[in-house]
Automatic annotation (TrEMBL):
Name under which the protein is recorded: Polycystin cation channel PKD1/PKD2 domain-containing protein
Stretches assigned to the Polycystin cation channel PKD1/PKD2 domain: 405-615
Keywords attached to this entry: Cell membrane, Disulfide bond, Endosome, Ion channel, Ion transport, Membrane, Transmembrane, Transmembrane helix, Transport
Domain Mucolipin extracytosolic: 164-356
Disulfide bond among keywords: yes
Classification via InterPro entries: MCLN_ECD, Mucolipin, PKD1_2_channel
Pfam families in UniProt: MCLN_ECD, PKD_channel
Organism from which the protein derives: Scylla paramamosain (Mud crab)
Membrane-spanning ranges: 374-395, 427-449, 489-512, 519-541, 587-609
Catalytic activity: Ca(2+)(in) = Ca(2+)(out)
Signal peptide annotation: none
Comp. bias regions, Basic and acidic residues: 14-29
Subcellular localization: Cell membrane; Endosome membrane
Length: 678
């Protein structure tokens, strides 16, 4: 006999015996009522009265009893439990129901039923397996999801790196070709910078830089190693343009220290009718011919814009295919500061174009391409199923919370506290729902990128460029990377939940949970002190120290000092031209380092260690319980005792088990029933 069903049969039998005993006591109570309506003294019934009671019991019709199995009427199980069909306002209620929330509204709900129901809710997957023999499908699904989404991220990371690296290399190539005096030391981002910004300081140098860019564009097919072509529209060459932005009017006279300025910015553009393979060009003569006079006193910036086409042939087959790009380059001369230094920079925007061509792929390549599509679709399907299961679990938890609140209100006349109500909110399930949504969105964008649905005629990201959103579009690659990256971060972070089933790892997780409130409160106080140091350092040291030139760089510098990074360089880089600033920088840096490293970080460690010692003490002496958990702990049945079986609760586990285990159940065709009524 199944031990779980055997336990249920005896529970039902005891319930029937209790009802019979209650009926006997009720009959005995009626015999002790005196004729005038007052209650008589308790005394033993006479032999005649006992015979009358026995006769009345024999004449009564016994209640209809049916035998049911764990999932309804027992058709293939050898034994079942008894469920009396009696008129009641509570519907189908039984002593072993643990998840049916409709019966809790009944005033006849007993504390033992509620305790079993709540205890089953707070069990971990291992205990639920012993309680109902239901396979932990959500756990298996999460493990499978980790494998699939991680494989998906690895494939996309390779594609993303190849894409960004190609566009960055294209910008470096254009910098060498279109910027006169470009040095390879400017290509590597080092700290501190190995060289100053590229700039021009004389008018003649400005025209030489501009002429150099124009002649390079004219001879691009002859000079460039890369494959480039000019852009045509309706059969005509799209000419490069020269745009100037300057103040609308005014003058500057340093002789008598006078000036007049109209701060309205006027912008004008002119096409450069340069022909192909022109090796000599004079921008100064061309502007004079067009009556364009450059007033460098009022000039803000000048932009030379050109358009080219190229094809990216180097791809990771079969995951990528050759792509056609429309490149928009801008050589920018920045004179906003009017400090005698005109900065020179180059920006590139890449627009994906429709490409016509064919590639002969090997048979292995087609197989890999199918696997990529399979991983994308599988990832979406798994996350959708996971999202549905977790939302369903959260919804059922809230139903149980409502029924528990009503039970405590009716049975004990008290309300659950906020802490007790939050016991029904599983934050791990919320975390899973969030990462499922992120991965679904990222996977859909990834499919669109691979099929080029979201890329045609849109400008894409080029690292270090100001033309990222040239036409107002968000870069789809970055958005997709953000969704997939955050989704995988939360997926792996959610693995801590399963490590929490082991005592050794659970100590660390509970320590984090215990110390987070105190750490957050302490961080608020710390943030005020940190903000004061940042604002002060930015104001006083900004003009004299390159690490303090902006508020963000000041915060990054101070945060690095807390972690002991680059301390000596920060001290030695302070300019000593002003003695007051130099002495202030020493006092400022010494006080900050001493306060944050020796005091504040030590207090952080003390808060975490205090939480760790508290958790260790809880494991030795027991965890503090609120009223709800004390009520649940009164249920002493073990998960494997069989009392947590629920005949009326049909969940997704039952559907899966009925599909996967139908062959095993069909082999059990015996119809032996235990006689429950005599």
């Amino acid at each position: 006999m199944n031990p779980a069903n055997h336990g249920q049969c005896h529970i039902r039998r005891n319930s029937r015996d209790e009802r019979s005993e209650g009926l006997s006591r009720e009959h005995l109570g009626h015999t002790n009522i005196s004729q005038n309506g007052t209650e008589g003294l308790e005394q033993a019934p006479s032999p005649q009265e006992l015979e009358d009671i026995a006769q009345s019991l024999q004449n009564q019709t016994p209640p209809e009893v049916k035998v049911v199995g764990p999932h309804g009427n027992c058709q293939r199980s050898c034994y079942g439990s008894v469920s009396s069909i009696l008129p009641t306002d509570c519907g189908h209620l039984d002593d072993t129901s643990t998840t049916n929330t409709t019966g809790v509204h009944c005033p006849n709900m007993t504390p033992s039923k509620m305790q079993r129901r709540l205890k089953f809710f707070f069990m971990n997957p291992k205990e639920k397996w012993h309680a109902r023999r239901r396979f932990p499908w959500k756990l298996l699904l999460q493990i499978f999801k980790i494998v699939v989404v991680t494989a998906q991220l690895c494939l996309f990371a390779q594609q993303r790196y190849s894409h960004v690296n190609y566009l960055w290399d294209t910008k470096i190539s254009f910098s060498h070709m279109f910027l006169k005096g470009w040095d390879t030391t400017r290509e590597v981002q080092v700290y501190p910078p190995g060289s100053g910004p590229l700039a021009v300081y004389e008018k003649q140098d400005f025209f030489q830089y501009l002429d150099y860019a124009i002649t390079t564009y004219s001879t691009i097919n002859e000079k460039a190693i890369g494959t480039y072509s000019y852009k045509y529209r309706d059969g005509d060459l799209v000419l490069p343009t020269l745009c100037m932005a300057q103040y609308a009017g005014g003058y500057v006279s340093p002789n008598n220290n006078t000036f007049m300025l109209n701060d309205t910015i006027a912008k004008s553009c002119i096409d450069i009718p340069v022909q192909m393979n022109v090796t000599s060009w004079s921008s100064e003569a061309f502007l004079k011919k067009k009556n364009y006079i450059l007033n460098f006193d009022l000039l803000m910036n000048i932009e030379f814009t050109f358009h080219l086409h190229t094809i990216k042939l180097r791809v990771n087959l079969p995951f990528d295919t050759p792509e056609c790009y429309g490149l928009t380059g801008k050589v920018i001369f920045n004179n906003h500061d009017h400090d005698g230094q005109m900065l020179v920079n180059l920006d590139v925007a890449a627009q994906v174009l429709e490409c016509q061509g064919s590639i002969k792929l090997a048979s292995e390549a087609y197989t890999l391409k199918v696997w990529r599509t399979f991983i994308n679709v599988t990832s979406i399907m798994i996350c959708i199923i996971s999202l549905i299961m977790c939302v369903r679990a959260l919804y059922r938890a809230q139903l149980l919370r409502k029924t528990t609140v009503l039970f405590f209100r009716q049975q004990y006349g008290k309300e659950l506290s906020l802490e007790e109500r939050m016991e029904f909110v599983n934050l791990w399930y919320l975390l899973i729902c969030i990462n499922d949504i992120f991965i679904i969105l990222g996977s859909c964008l990834k499919i669109g990128l691979e099929s080029k649905t979201y890329r045609i005629h849109r400008y894409e990201f080029v690292k270090g460029s100001d033309l990222v959103n040239y036409e107002g579009y968000l870069d789809t690659w970055n958005v997709c990377s953000l969704f997939l990256g955050l989704g995988n971060l939360l997926v792996w972070f959610g693995c801590l939940r399963y490590l929490g089933f082991f005592t050794t790892y659970n100590v660390l997780i509970l320590t984090l949970k215990k110390c987070i409130p105190n750490v957050l409160r302490y961080s608020i106080c710390l943030l005020m002190v940190f903000a004061g140091y940042c604002l002060c350092g930015w104001l006083v040291l900004g003009p004299y120290h390159f690490k303090f030139r902006s508020f963000s760089s000041t915060m990054e510098c101070l945060y690095s000092l807390i972690n002991g990074d680059d301390m000596f360089a920060t001290f030695s880089s302070t300019s000593g031209k002003d003695p007051m600033v130099w002495w202030f920088s020493r006092i400022y840096l010494y006080s900050f380092i001493s306060l944050f490293i020796y005091v504040i970080l030590s207090l952080f460690i003390a808060i975490i260690m205090d939480a760790y010692e508290t958790i260790k003490n809880y494991y030795e002496n027991g965890f503090p319980l609120n009223e709800l958990m004390k009520f649940v702990e009164e249920c002493t049945e073990e998960p494997s005792s069989g009392v947590f079986q629920d005949e009326d609760d049909h969940t997704i586990h039952d559907v899966i088990n009925s599909i996967c285990c139908c062959g095993y159940e069909m082999n059990q065709q015996s119809a032996e029933y235990e006689p429950l009524l005599t």
